[in-house]
């Protein structure tokens, strides 16, 4: 498209009002459009910008919208300008303050306006559910795209905020400007937050590709989205407060339960340890008493030891005085004895040094003897080494001769005829054989590959043979005929059925094949009548019995296998679907029964057909009905549809118009596609038999080809074996000749090696002769040392003899002195005995005193240790404890306490530590529990206060939504309600529940992705969004092609309700994107229609599209026709 042939936008404002009466609207729809006067010509304006005028477009655009800004809410969109964006080179949009209908054929770029609003206000592409890259929104062939969005300012702002986005294709980046100043994305996001614009909230911004996602919102998510869109900001803050406080309350409760249980367990453990603790404490008291008595015993023993030491000291002094007085009286008689004894002691003292001198001489003699023995051994070793070397001289001379003889032999071999060896000739002959072998090997491998391919082809043909044989047999059964039809007409359903038959045991409950395969008609006369109620999806849907199986099957079919099939879930039993009247009553009305009576199949499948299509309420009869029977059936509200003879009747009742507002649609019953007993398809059977014969022929040919290839491969392998033998013979011959040639070539080197060995042996022989000479010198040196040692030993023995004689002389003099002293002692024996007795008594008393002293000193140290750390009061108690008692008395008391201790059985000492530690821990835990209980009470009060403010507001908000939602449904003779599910146990599970009913006699059902059809979900979604319009907190809302899937009646009613609500005086801005329009739709002066004109017939150049002239032409045509 040339640059001048751009798409442009223009705005159409209607010139007429509308009566609010439903009756008047209905009558107006039933009449043709009448030509009006031309006085509305000035109401049609074109705001598309020319290419030459773009330089100042922003300033002029702001001037254009300035006059009408008073009707716009702050944050509403005044203008959207795009350049090189998606399908547009340049376009400008000027929406109105209320309802904006954007209309145009499919593909003209209506949704591009939605994309521009989303991206221009700083939101991500994932909100749109379309492209994921920003660069994908740049027009094909362009480097960059720009979006400019002007919003209505707030009363305190100086100017309207203008946001400009630039997208670069090359690096997939975007740049923002706010009021001609470059800014970051977070600045745009802050601005959106101030205006409460929530593009990512499906309740405010519902693009075309997100309609199904809105219907799939969980009730919990829907509550959050609704509050964001319709609740004041304080409610959002309070909801977050409540969510946080309830979360904290649950955490407190969980902690309280955990701590209570922990305290109970700890108390149980403490109770179990109580007997052991009491025994341990009793043992502790006894042990403490034992330690006290032990200290008392030490003090008492110390006092007694001091007393015994004083007595021993006094006795010793008394004995020493007596001995001294006796010695003074017997002094002269004892002096001679003492002198002789003194002499004997002096002589006796000379003997030990002389004995030591003799012992030293003996030790020196032993050392000299050992030295002589060592030298003698050394002499023998040297002599043996010399003898060994002399014996080796002859052997080395013989080795020299051997090497000399070998050198001569090698020289004779060298002089013989030189052997020949041509390596190149041998290699050529061997390579020829190897080349032949590789050729045979390649041929063998090729034949093996071909044989493998033939075998694989044969296996595939065998499989096809089994499949075709099964198909031929299946043609004889109804299920087989139906499956054959599915494979031809609905291959995705057939593929899903085959997968299900192989994996049917992988689900929680049984999953059923589509009704086309799993159900059948009991009486073929009713087949067409029953099938007139059903559509293709009803025959071809798979049926699950629980949500988990539905999710698993959806994941397999849609994500893994990429199939386009339908899956339905029905958890209600068949018994819950009862026909509205008995068989006799239905027969009196001219029908034979209800459709459910003539269909056979699994109960869950039949229950699904009852739930979704009302099979249990659809009356059927083979005969035509009379006028009277027709009137009776029409007046019976429990029967909405029925089929009789060859006609299907569908009744619609409009309760708002009274009981007589009943319309009936009739259609001729066509022959059903399924559940028919048709003869075997002979053409298909002949085709399958021909295919089977062809497969048999191909299998035979493949078998012959495989045998031929196997024979050729065997011949090739035999040729390879023969070539292997020939190559081995050639290699062995080459190896033998090459070995002989290499031996001759190695002779010079061998001669050289032998000559080197001969020279080495001669050098070794010279070394041995030198070593023999050295050993001879060493032998002489050792002999000299041995002679010197023998002479030294002889001299030392002489000295030892002299010292031994001196010892004998001293011993004789000592014996003589002792004899003289003994004689003198005999003369004074009685005096001596008395002196000795006195000395003995003094010695005994001294030993006794010393023993008592040492005992007292030991006890003194024990007393110091026992009294360490004891105060004066404890010491006084100890003294009082043993006062008047002997150590034996105290010891008896100590043993009594120890006996008590033995009777108290000992427990694990760690039990007491654990008991005390746990008691402290229990105390701290009880303190924490008390503190948390106080926090819980305080938190409950805070929750009650905030919830007391928030919940009434929520109830009021949902009540208003429910009132509007219910009213909207009443206008189309249906029912709907919105309520809040309040889970008192979990605030996070509070949710909005939407329940709708589209058929008379049906109960309200929760709106979800599975219960309602696509058109019903669209109606419910738009009615819910419309219910939020009067409470919308956002300045504008967008709905893109929500009418997809609606029937004309519902679409017309939805449009009327939308016009009424969106054009209210205080309503926010609303965008409705739609590709189609019905005739005679309601118009309101507050709404604005934005028409998109694009394509090859758009005027070229700078000419503007004048929709006003188009309306004039249309009016003239209508006037002429009338």
From TrEMBL:
Biased composition regions of type Basic and acidic residues, renumbered to the chain = 311-323
Annotated region described as Disordered, given as residue ranges: 1-60, 309-329
**Lineage top rank: taxon:** Eukaryota
**Keyword entries, A-Z:** Coiled coil
RecF/RecN/SMC N-terminal domain ranges (all copies):
77-1074
What the entry lists under InterPro entries is as follows:
P-loop_NTPase, RecF/RecN/SMC_N
A Pfam family of this chain = SMC_N
Cellular component, GO annotation:
nucleus; Smc5-Smc6 complex
Biological process terms from the Gene Ontology for this record are: double-strand break repair via homologous recombination
Task: Show the GO MF annotations.
Answer: single-stranded DNA binding
| Recorded coiled-coil stretches | 358-399, 685-733, 786-869
Tell me the protein family, please. Belongs to the SMC family. SMC5 subfamily.
Full protein name: Structural maintenance of chromosomes protein 5
Per the UniProt record, the source organism is: Gaeumannomyces tritici (strain R3-111a-1)
